[in-house]
Amino acid sequence: MSRPRSPVLAAFMAALVLILGGAPLLKGAFYLGKHEGDTMHLAELVLRMADGQWPHVDFMTPIGILALAPISVFIQAGAGLGHAIFYAQILVAVVLFLPVMRVAMSRLTGIWPYAYGGFVMLLCLALVHGEAQSATSISMHYNRWAWAVSYIAIPLAVLAPLDRPRPWLDGALIGLGMAVLVLTKVTYFAAFAPGVLVALLARRQWVMILAAAIAGLAVAAFVTALAGTDFWLAYLQDLLTVATGDARQAPGESLIDVIVAPLYMGGSLALVAGVIFLRQAGRSVEGLTLLVLMPGCFYVAYQNFGNDPQWLYLLAMFAFVLRPEPGTINGCGWDLRAALTFTGVAALCFGAPSAINLAFSPWRHMASDTTDVVPLLPRLPLADDVLTPASRLYTANLKRPYDQPGDPFASYREFAKREDVPVLNGEELPECQLEGGISAWFELATDDLMAAGYSGSALMGTDLYSAYWMFGDFKTVKGAAPWYYGGLPGIENADYLVVPLCPMAFSLRSSMLKSLEEGGWALREVHRSPLYILVEPIAP
Prior knowledge:
Elements: H1 6-27, E1 30-31, H2 36-50, H3 69-76, H4 81-107, H5 112-125, H6 141-158, H7 167-184, H8 186-202, H9 206-227, H10 229-244, H11 255-260, H12 262-280, H13 284-303, H14 312-321, H15 336-366, E2 373-375, E3 386-389, H16 390-394, E4 396-399, H17 413-416, E5 423-424, E6 427-428, E7 433-436, H18 438-451, E8 459-461, E9 496-500, H19 506-518, E10 522-528, E11 532-538
């Protein structure tokens, strides 16, 4: 197959960056269709970082600094939150442009340089995380970015160069890529590093391994020089908190279901078939590497919300570009070129819904309805270019059990196996949960808190979010988690705790109150409203 012409490939990819990156800017603002809570969480992370705070050191999050820095740097430059997100996506695409060109020009032929380059640019610039739900969202943008980086490091290690080898360059790109994964979402590094290393060892690419080690260590040294060794210790602590807590170890299906559930089994079988057929076709290194990568592919999908197997397109590319010459037969008499073709087609088909959703998202955003929308964070002028339908922010529904004492179904409560009723200072709290109305809740709560004289306080909530400072005159809490993952991070720096009577996450309120009790913290009530109880935490 013909080799790509670099000017044509570069022009094609640049056009995609211009079109997919520029289309959202023409809309004038970011119009969300879902995941408003996730976007509020992202806003707190990047705004705090833009204010000079460091992830892990000044606030708890398992998300790496490179998932936030591209956005926060544009906020520091004066852009609104929505535009900063658009600019950050373009920046990521531009930074990855040349490494993608290197992979495409040195490893791929035929149509695959263009398909590969276009898809990686799409991962950088899409306005949805994947799946087949059409609404636009910036939620989990770091998963897309991490996949884009993985799509550079893995092919460089797995595929042999078609022209003059450049082990120092390719090794450095792999090392930089793996370092970026550590600093974006470490799950990807843990999942794919073994496969990358096996590929390099199997090919005896000692220079590439050395170059990768030097590049990775250089990044680590640079970050340490900027943030100090405490940064790494704090990052590790945040990761351990999430890994050992019960709040959010995995946000979707179980690991077994991600592999064998009906929705995913076809892709899993395609991956197994790819390993077998590559080995039978004489591609022993590639087949072995794909086998070692297999658990990591499943684990990343398991750990990501939506469980999207974004590795399917990589599998398809490997299946097509590594096909043997016609007439290569296995022990069953199957033509292995045809077998790998079928495997690649199957992988593309199984991954098509998510890929199509990614590709359509910028255009769907351009067609977003701009009537009856309001700012996601109406009291932060810096975020007035992130908009969403008012009904999604201000429609509040109350969910409660219908088997409490006095209810018609009270006699069946023992069959429900509900959590224990949470208790605060001997008082049983209501068994209820707020669904929707996230902005309405924070506006009402912060207005009441300021009217009661608590302006200027550092507030934490015993709920999923503690975004009080984005809705009123309050301080952020050093060391606290903008999205609660477990434990009591930052509790020693909080002036007060807001205990919602009907939280947005019932189990998280119970978990945090239990941790406070186990830690020996006393909670002195200082104020109460129909929405919450305000308590002062007193250390043991």
